[in-house]
Amino acid sequence: MMDLSQCRVLAVDDTKLNLDILVNTLGKSHELAVALDGATALEMAAESPPDLILLDIMMPGMNGYEVLERLKRIPPRPRCRSSCSRPCPTWAPRHGVSSSVPWTT
Are the CB atoms for 60 and 68 separated by under 8 Å? Predict the structure, then answer.
């Protein structure tokens, strides 16, 4: 079993403050990469597949749902967890998301 501190995490959010919080929280104990938009996240995931993606749903341009659909085409498929302002219990399982958790800022 992999030591969780060795997991590669990709955090995707258009709000820099949210990414700063994640960097301060996870950056010292995990290999953490951040992207401010979906297109950058896709490039990063294709170049170096993460073990876990923390993906914001409500983003301008390419939203989190579209990012997830495109990520599913990049092997190996990472485990995805969505963050949204309201629960997404029916959407998450249909789209290969392990869980959906509310995100508060």
Answer: no
